[in-house]
Structure formats: structure tokens, C-alpha cells
Design a protein that fits this description.
This protein has 14 helices and 12 strands. By secondary structure, the chain is an alpha/beta fold. Helix 3 (about 50-60) runs antiparallel to helix 11 (about 275-285), helix 4 (about 75-90) runs parallel beside helix 11 and helix 5 crosses helix 10 (about 255-270). The longest helix is centred in the C-terminal third of the chain and has 24 residues, at about 290-310. It is globular and about 55 Å long. About 45% of the residues are buried. The structure holds pyridoxal-5'-phosphate.
């Protein structure tokens, strides 16, 4: 047959496998070998689907809701999101300014693609969620990284240092994956002022909004009409409703940009899964008390994880939201990748290296797991640390 030369796309070859998915693969491998693996790498809540959401899925199947849906989402869901944005975020959008997608990740891809031209720069605050930089590259633009302060809080003054005439947008995420930090109103206002002064967009990833344990979540778009006009809010159902596998997200923003995202989505994936959209609709009607109960449990796990990690000798403060703790491993004189790999090999604990978030010297621990698992996992980390110190 002879060998053929593979003439691949340089653009796609420049994209890496999402590091968290790569860790998930390693974890599976160790589990298959029969090891008792502790998974601190998961990016999803561990509570079950709420009963009303399950029922809505069953009903949708029984009612044969299996056909194509409008590209931007079923009208009932767009209307419910419109109501949600007004009630929770004080944001008034026309339904045509809301586009439902197959997950916040797709919404981010849609929005960034709709804004990007070659040479455009997208500022990303470090530490950042793993996919932003690759999505920007995939869209043909250039990621530019801004530092955050010593406690990893996003700061307008540090973002400002990275602004150039080529800055097209700033991507912010709060509560933040991987640090759990949120952004206070004054800082949001200072960031908004930069966007207005230097004429760039803000892509605001608010997917952990409901998992804010300290203070209240404020959408940057709600600060003024001027900033709303320059902001695209991205959100979804994965984290707040434990619907990661159902793949429903959405974005809301200026009509012309949202129209471009709809056009793009129409050529790539079409509307999101019909059954999942009915489940998302039910999710928005979940009684608040049930949601609060699930979130309180997560908060308890946060407190436990922080307490145990402190006892184990790590210097950590309580993250304001999400379900992660980002801890320093600088005392151990190895890269975060090596630390994560050896922790997996020697103690069978999966964590995500800080390098995946653009920040060396740290690891991310997800505490969205059983309390007993948190205890056993931290014990093993402690054992590993005393061995390598
Ligand atoms: C900050 C952030 N944005 C977006 C996403 C993607 O969410 P979805 O499952 O809706 O695609 C994640 C998932 O890990 C995330 O952590």
C-alpha cells in the first residue's frame, strides 16, 4: 500500500486535547487497572438531576419531541431564559438576542468566532479556564494573557496593561474556574470603564453564577446600558443543575452579534438536543429551595475541603464560589504536571495541574464529591507531600 503523508490542518493541529479531558482518560485507565482512584479532577457537581428535570425529559420523549428545533432554541426556552436574565441578573433582552446552544462551550466558540478577525487580540485573565485560549486560536485570533493579583483576583489595572489597538474583547469568568474567585462590583465597574474607553467587547462567562457562596453575583452587563451593549453573557445548565452531559448553554448579547452566532450554529450543529432543551426549560422552574439545598451541600464540602487542606499544611482561603480550590505546590520543587502525574501514580488521586490554567506552581482540586472521598483524598495528598518534601 505504501505510506501516505498526512496533510493535516495546521490550524487544528495547533489545538490541544482539553487537558481536563486528558486527565479523565488517565483516570479511566487507572480505574480499569483496578486501582481505587480518588477523583478531584471533575468539573461537574455531584448532586443528582432534580426530579422535575427528569420528568420533563421523560415527557419530551413520550411526546415525540425528537425533531429538529429552531437553531436558536425552542421559543419556550428562550422566553424562560429571557425571564431568568431579567429576574436574576437585571438584564432585559429581546428573545432574538438569546441563542441556545449545545453547552456554554459552544456558545463561547460561537461568540468568539462571531467577533474574531485575524490579528484581533482577546485578553484572558490568568488563571483561566482551559478552553478559552484554544477557542480564540481556533477562531483565528490571538489570545493575550493578563495577570491577576496575588490572590488571583481579576484587576482592571492589570488588564489595562494588556490593552492594545488590536484588543477586540476581554474574556472574564466569575466565579472563576479554577480559583473560585468572584469579581466585586467596584472592580467590575473599573473593567467596564476600560471596555468603554478602549472600545472592546466583554465576553462574560457566568456559568458558575448560582454557585456563589460569598456575596452576590452581579453580571457586568447589568452595570450600565453602555456596557450591556458591549457584553455578551454566556451561561448554561451544566454546573447549576448538574446537566453536564445534556449539553445546553446559551449566550445573550447585542442582536447583530447574536445573529452571526445563530448563522454559524445553523451551519455547524443546528439547534441543541430537543429533549435536553425541554429539560433545561424545566430546570429554570426548579423550586429555589431545592436548588439552595444542593448548593448548601456544596458549600459544606468547600468548608470541609478548605479545613482539611489547611490542616494538611496548605495555605488556602475559602473560595467565594464554583467548586474548586486552587492550591500552591511551590514548596515541592516540581512542575504542576509532574506533581499531578506522580500523585496519580503514587497515590491514585486525580487533580488538574495549574499549567492547564496557564499558572505554574498550583493544582486544582474539585471538591464536588462525597465528604468521605474528600477526607480520603486529602489524606493521600498529605502522604504524597510528606514523601516528596
Ligand atoms: C468556566 C467554564 N466555562 C464554560 C464551561 C463549559 O460548560 P458547558 O458544559 O456548558 O459547555 C465550563 C465547564 O467546565 C467552565 O468551567
Amino acid at each position: 500500500l505504501g505510506l501516505i503523508t498526512i496533510k493535516y490542518s495546521h490550524r487544528i493541529a495547533g489545538i490541544q486535547l482539553s487537558p481536563t479531558l486528558a486527565i479523565a482518560a488517565k483516570l479511566k485507565e487507572y480505574k480499569a487497572k483496578g486501582f481505587d482512584v480518588i477523583d478531584f479532577s471533575i468539573g461537574e457537581p455531584n448532586f443528582d438531576l432534580f426530579a422535575n428535570i427528569k420528568q420533563a425529559g421523560i415527557r419530551a420523549i413520550e411526546e415525540n419531541k425528537s425533531r429538529y428545533t429552531p437553531v436558536a432554541g425552542i421559543p419556550e426556552l428562550r422566553a424562560a431564559i429571557q425571564k431568568k436574565l431579567l429576574a436574576d441578573n437585571r438584564l432585559s433582552y429581546d428573545a432574538s438576542e438569546i441563542v441556545v446552544s449545545s453547552g456554554a462551550k459552544q456558545s463561547l466558540f460561537n461568540v468568539i468566532s462571531a467577533l474574531a478577525n485575524p490579528g484581533d487580540e482577546f485578553i484572558i485573565v490568568k488563571p483561566y479556564w482551559v478552553s478559552y485560549a484554544d477557542i480564540v486560536k481556533l477562531a483565528g485570533a490571538t489570545p493575550v494573557f493578563a495577570e491577576s493579583d496575588e490572590q488571583f483576583h481579576a484587576r482592571a489595572a492589570l488588564i489595562e496593561k494588556k490593552i492594545t489597538p488590536k484588543t477586540k474583547a476581554l474574556i472574564i469568568n466569575y466565579p472563576c474556574n479554577p480559583t473560585g474567585n468572584t469579581i466585586q462590583k467596584e472592580e467590575l465597574a473599573a473593567i467596564a470603564a476600560l471596555a468603554i474607553k478602549h472600545d472592546f467587547y466583554i465576553v462574560s462567562d457566568e456559568i458558575y453564577e448560582h454557585l456563589t457562596f460569598e456575596g452576590t453575583h452581579i453580571s457586568i452587563a447589568s452595570l450600565s446600558p453602555a456596557i450591556k451593549q458591549r457584553t455578551i453573557v454566556v451561561n448554561g445548565f451544566s454546573k447549576a443543575y448538574a446537566m453536564t452531559g445534556l449539553r445546553v448553554g446559551y449566550a445573550a448579547g447585542p442582536k447583530q452579534i447574536m445573529q452571526l452566532t445563530e448563522n454559524l450554529q445553523s451551519q455547524v450543529t443546528s439547534g441543541a438536543s430537543s429533549v435536553a432543551q425541554y429539560m433545561a426549560l424545566a430546570a429554570l422552574n426548579t423550586p429555589r429551595e431545592e436548588l439552595q439545598e444542593a448548593y448548601k451541600l456544596l458549600q459544606k464540602k468547600r468548608d470541609l475541603a478548605v479545613h482539611l487542606l489547611k490542616e494538611a499544611g496548605f495555605s488556602v482561603s475559602k473560595p467565594a464560589g464554583a467548586f474548586y480550590v486552587f492550591i500552591s505546590i511551590q514548596d515541592f520543587h516540581m512542575s504542576s504536571q509532574e506533581f499531578a502525574e506522580r500523585l496519580m501514580e503514587e497515590q491514585h488521586v486525580a487533580v488538574v495541574p495549574g499549567s492547564a490554567f496557564g499558572t505554574e506552581g498550583y493544582i486544582r482540586i474539585s471538591y464536588a464529591t462525597a465528604e468521605d472521598t474528600i477526607r480520603r483524598g486529602v489524606e493521600r495528598i498529605k502522604a504524597f507531600c510528606s514523601q516528596v518534601q
